[in-house]
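Hello, quick one for you while I still have it in my head. A protein chain has come my way and I'm curious about its shape. Can you walk me through what the tokens say about the fold? No rush at all, and the record is pasted right below.
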Amino acid sequence: MSHTQLATVDFHGQALTVITANGQRLVAMKPICEGIGLQWEAQLKRMKRDEVLSTCMSMVDIQMPPDDQRRQVTCLPLEYLNGWLFGIDVSRCREAIRPTLIQYKRECYAALAAYWQQGKAADAPAPSLLRRRWLVSFDRNGKEVVTAVPQDACVLTLPDFLKALAVDGDLGVTGDELFEFAIAALANLRRRSAYMTKRLSELQPVQLKL
């Protein structure tokens, strides 16, 4: 596929690389299987046996981080990842991630029950991954980075943040939180001042001959 881009998404505590190719978001399955402690070959066979997943698997020629060369990787569309995760055997995963996966599967069961009982997918509670908010940004190398944003958080540009600080009531923070921010800002300024003072003291005076 051409015109591929990479982005990093937080997926249940795991750094997940999403491939955008021709407008479709794909997930390389081998890294996520290894990340949660599943045997890749067994999962590949399971996807090939699945009546739905087998129809949407694709191969992408791409260089995945931290690899140093391009390879053919097996991918699923991002929207099918939840269904694949719902069908895995939790007992085969790393012990540290099992509670998160069990909670996610409980949410999937509740969503399916709500759908069949109420007859409308819109009325079913979405799994936690779908209810989350995401911030899309770009790092210094131009790579797209997708970061999960807490439900009680607000996202502001730096100028808007400084402006909101100057207006009483425009920023949803308590007095204690604002005080902690001020202390942290002063400590940062103190470190910067000490650094600049040290740099200036290291500069040798230059004598000019007239």
Summary: The first helix runs from residue 29 to 35.
